[in-house]
Design brief:
By secondary structure, this protein is of the alpha+beta class. It has 11 helices and 6 strands. Helix content is 49%, strand content 13%. It holds the Pfam family GGDEF.
């Protein structure tokens, strides 16, 4: 998916055949490490990684080793095993970080990631010509699914809905669980019509999925409210909370229009997309107060 997803890959293992490159003062090249001049730095790296995981005793021992090495006139060659240990710890640290940003049930991003990433995206869009859309998506009558078929099947429904939502997302967009059966689609660098089209396609895919194969008589639909933000150099920045409130108001309009609909705003008018467009009069009346 995006940004943080691609930013969690661990560093490549050290190689001995790479040519030396000019580095800023105080930085160690890979060749330096291979020549044995960076063992103290490796111990410090291990200490930092262990400390970030709360393994204070092991971190302390590595830090002491780093201090001892820095006081040695002739530092020993870095063992290959130690370099592998650094790479392993870095990979584990990256994986733990990624897992902390994922919802345990649906594997979509969680509220923590949503809050962090959406705030960053809104800040990046200030004063640019790029639009940013946020869609709040809610499963219709989901309590009835749990009451009728049980929570285990309800969990499977949530997982499948997330898969269907994520399959239609453009590059750079992501899905996050907002809470319960509510999810947020964040669509950066997109125009209003394209954002509505993405959400309407997602709604249609959920409706057309063969739910009865999962359980006889099962039917699942979703409703969504799409709030689009397009700032300029002269406009005041919009907070993540404000955009989510706007999306929630439009979701309310979609629900009040009869559910299984995508609501969006054009100027002061609230409209419905796709097959629900004929209900736009009701949506406009009920969403007029937002």
């Amino acid at each position: 998916m995006t940004g943080l997803r691609n930013g969690f890959a661990g560093p490549e293992p050290l190689r001995d055949d790479e040519p030396p490159t000019a580095l800023p003062p105080g930085r160690r090249s890979r060749q330096d490490l291979a020549n044995g001049t960076g063992m103290a730095e490796l111990h410090e790296s291990i200490a930092n990684l262990l400390a970030s995981r709360g393994q204070w005793r092991q971190a302390y021992h590595h830090l002491r080793s780093a201090l001892d090495l820095k006081s040695t006139a002739d530092p020993p060659r870095v063992p290959e095993q130690l370099r592998h240990e650094v790479n392993r710890l870095r990979r584990e640290h990256a994986e733990a970080r990624e897992q902390s940003l994922r919802d345990s049930l649906t594997a979509s991003y969680n509220r923590r990631y949503l809050d962090e990433r959406l705030a960053d995206l809104l800040a990046d869009h200030v004063g640019t010509d790029h639009g940013l859309a946020v869609a709040l998506v809610d499963l219709d009558w989901f309590k009835q699914v749990n009451d009728t078929y049980g929570h285990l099947l309800g969990d499977r429904v949530l997982q499948r809905v997330v898969d269907l939502l994520q399959e239609v997302l453009p590059t750079g967009a992501f899905c996050a669980r907002y809470g319960g059966e509510e999810f947020v689609l964040v669509l950066p660098n997109i125009e209003p019509a394209a954002a509505v089209a993405v959400c309407e396609t997602a709604r249609s895919r959920v409706e057309r999925f063969p739910w009865a194969q999962m359980a006889p008589g099962l039917r699942v639909t979703v409703s969504a409210g799409v709030a689009h933000e397009h700032t300029t150099a002269d406009s005041a920045p919009v907070s993540a909370e404000q955009q989510l409130i706007s999306a929630d108001a439009l979701l309310y309009a979609a629900k009040q229009s009869g559910r299984n609909a995508v609501a969006y705003r054009t100027g002061a008018e609230v409209r419905l997309a796709g097959i629900a467009a004929g209900r736009r009069g009701a949506a406009a009346r009920r969403g007029a107060g937002y």
